[in-house]
Amino acid sequence: MRTYLNLVEARRSLYPYQLCDYTFASKAQNCFDQAEAAVKNNSEQLARVKGARLQLDLTMMSLRNTIIAGYLRTPRASLERYPYPRSLLQARALETLRNTRHPLLLTKAPNYEMDEKGNSRVTFPSIASRVETLIEEMCKGKEYIPLPEQFRDLPPDSVFDWTASMFGINPYGGSSNSTDKMQVDDEAADGTAYVRLNAEELPVPIGIWNNETLTDPEFEKSKQEFLKPDQAGQYVNWPQICRVINAADIPGPGYHLYKGPRFLLFPGTYLYLTKSWQFQQQLTSLYHEDKPKEIWEAYVSAKFTGPAYPHGKTDEPNAVSIDRVVLLRVGTQPVVR
Q: Cβ(302)–Cβ(258) under 8 Å?
């Protein structure tokens, strides 16, 4: 376990962009294999090791695209031989949670939900059961989804993506709308998509909301950077930065990648999509306190269906579907119109 802690400590210098890649994950899993073997006859110590390993398994499930992509860059690698498939990580994590005696995981905490009629209710599940629900959501969709082609040759620490199973949906954010939901979609990157059933979504906002109050005298200079000619259609009304998808921007049926706003990232920054604001993806994990002036760009993969939208069919529901969000550190961006 000391070796594992040393691995973690060595990664601190790579925060926040490369905390867990394939190199780290494989070494860390090897540490836990050895630790479990060393204490296999001591049930209490074994439970502690498995409890510590739970954090690693959860991280690898959440970041599986990044980790698998790193593995596939190693010699003679193939997806069929990937040593840490989602099914293995999921089964081990669920076993640990269902047998845990850790007081924190057994703690019951209030959970506020909204039923199908829009009525709020409160339940008191254990932290362990809530983590089980999180695992179920993380493990939906495909085992591995390659980055869009435009981004595949970029440095791993400059491009970050979320597919639908990792989206942040806030049922209490913005206007309440029971038609906003996660839905199975064979055309989507990982087989699921966030769907908003609405005939009046255009123009669709790709927006950034910053909870930081800017007093920086350089902001006006920074704002001019945001509004370069290639950012036509973007507007800045601090703390909101937004770029919209108009009807003329939709090139055809199916999913297409749309360029969003250019922005500075602060603690508490999140990306919102559609007019409901129920899609709220927190971006705080990418904030680097030593690099507060870094500029980012957002890209969104979306499709439009139904007769209300360009190229939509009359036998389809009017809807906007979103299956992927990609964030890029400016300086290595591909050409996406």
A: yes
